[in-house]
């Protein structure tokens, strides 16, 4: 069974599914669903449409280069059937799939780690601006009074030292 890739979004197209478009120059385009076919007919660039795999790779949201991708390449060499080879191939395919998922998870975690600090800083700034929504008004005035008194004491100490 040959599982093809959608020309537009790079998802899997199983036999009997999707749309096959053949141009006058005999180039064949496979599409997984009508959404991809319509976008192709509208001459949209898959690298600029946010939901496609090409966009996600270009924007750095998914792994772009990995050794496991080379194993997925399409090969048109016919192989002689051998039960042992088929069993080994299936085991290897599962192992490669496990490795790929672990690498993708690691890539995602590393990508999210960078934004975590930025998000915390933005949350802190927002909390400082809108503290009146969290604390009661009386406690805010007490805090302001304490800060004012501490500032006055610091000024007095600085003046005495000079």
TrEMBL record:
CDD domains: Ribosomal_L24e_L24 (cd00472). Residues 136-162 are annotated as: Disordered. One of its GO terms (cellular component) is nucleolus. Its main location: nucleus. GO terms for biological process: ribosomal large subunit biogenesis. Keywords: Nucleus, Ribosome biogenesis. GO terms for molecular function: structural constituent of ribosome. The keyword Lipid metabolism does not apply. It is found in: Nucleus. The keyword Nucleus applies. Residues 6-44 form the TRASH domain. Residues 140-156 have a biased composition (Basic and acidic residues). Belongs to the eukaryotic ribosomal protein eL24 family. PANTHER family: 60S RIBOSOMAL PROTEIN L24 (PTHR10792), RIBOSOME BIOGENESIS PROTEIN RLP24-RELATED (PTHR10792:SF8). This is TRASH domain-containing protein. It comes from Dunaliella tertiolecta.
């Amino acid at each position: 069974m040959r599982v093809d890739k959608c020309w537009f979004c790079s998802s899997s197209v199983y036999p009997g599914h999707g749309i096959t478009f053949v141009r006058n120059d005999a180039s064949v385009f496979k599409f997984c669903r009508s959404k991809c076919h319509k976008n192709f007919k509208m001459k949209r660039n898959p690298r600029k449409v946010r939901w496609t795999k090409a966009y996600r790779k270009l924007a750095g949201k998914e792994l772009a280069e990995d050794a496991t991708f080379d194993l997925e390449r399409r090969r048109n060499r016919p192989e002689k059937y051998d039960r042992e080879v088929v069993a080994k191939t299936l085991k290897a395919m599962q192992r490669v799939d496990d490795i790929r998922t672990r690498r993708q998870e690691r890539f995602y975690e590393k990508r999210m780690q960078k934004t975590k600090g930025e998000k915390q800083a933005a949350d802190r700034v927002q909390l400082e601006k809108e503290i009146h929504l969290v604390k009661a008004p009386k406690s805010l005035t007490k805090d302001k009074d304490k800060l004012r008194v501490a500032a006055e004491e610091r000024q007095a100490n600085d003046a005495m030292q000079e």
